[in-house]
Amino acid sequence: MSKRANKAEHFKRIPKHIGIIPDGNRRWAVDHNMEKQQGYGHGIEPGFQLYQQLLDYGIEEVTFYGFTKDNTKRPAIQTEAYVKACVDAVKLLSERDANLLVVGKTDSRVFPDELKKYANQRVNFGKGSININFLVNYDWEWDLKGGVTGDIHSKDISRIDLILRWGGRRRLSGFLPVQSVYADFYVLEENWPDFKTEHFINAMKWYQQCDVTLGG
Predict the structure, then answer these.
(1) Is the pLDDT of residue 84 over 70?
(2) Beta strand 131-138 pairing with 17-22
(3) Structural domains in the chain?
(4) 102: Cβ contacts below 8 Å, ≥ 6 apart
């Protein structure tokens, strides 16, 4: 039996699509006597630890919240730091297995040129073991207005089963409002750079008790 099957068998219900809101990077930096912008770079490694768990448990799709249009109201030094962190994360991902789709407003000066080749199309890396969606300069109002065809901009992203949010905040913050309509929401008090593998395990245990009816 495969490593993936061995882990997955511990849970009867495995969400097909998980949303990740990796919040608390700036607060983590302040708590560790750093400048706020330094927290973003420390959020990359936790993302890949979680990525490995998602593979091990056979998760088919995951959406990571990179940054929003509203985040660009922050000081320029912070904006530059989280944009760089997004670019660096994709560079590392390109050396692994994933089908990447970047969704966000590409016609903005803050949208990184390095990621435009992944925008609005799914690009395969390696074996393409998991669909990864990355929201970069994302704006929910822009998403809902859609394009010339009348579809929402995030139309290629499936409905989300479970959302995990680090940093203790209990809000969506504009995270894929259409796909999140029936998602269960699990909040972790720890800031994102303090990610531990048991965070995901505990979320999965909690998800086993959720009454998923989809309104029925």
Answers:
(1) yes
(2) unpaired
(3) 18-198 (3.40.1180.10)
(4) 90, 115, 118, 119, 120, 133, 134, 135, 136
User: What is the Cα–Cα distance from 116 to 171, expressed in whole angstroms?
Assistant: 29
d(CA 183, CA 160): 6
Which residue is listed with tokens 């929401």? 185
User: What SS3 class is residue 1?
Assistant: coil
Token couple for 37: 């912008």
Length of the chain in residues, anyone?
216
Q: Where are the beta strands (DSSP E) in the chain?
A: 17-22, 61-68, 98-103, 123-125, 131-138, 162-166, 184-187
The CA distance from 54 to 74, in Å, is: 31
pLDDT of residue 214: 67
Separation CA 86–CA 79 (nearest Å): 11
Please count the CA atoms within 13 angstroms of the CA of 51 that sit on its side-chain side: 24
CA distance 171 to 15: 20
The amino acid that residue 182 corresponds to is: Y
Q: Can you tell me the distance from the alpha carbon of 185 to that of 175, in angstroms, rounded to the nearest whole number?
A: 12
Paired with 131 in beta bridges are: 61, 99
Q: What is this structure's pTM?
A: 0.93
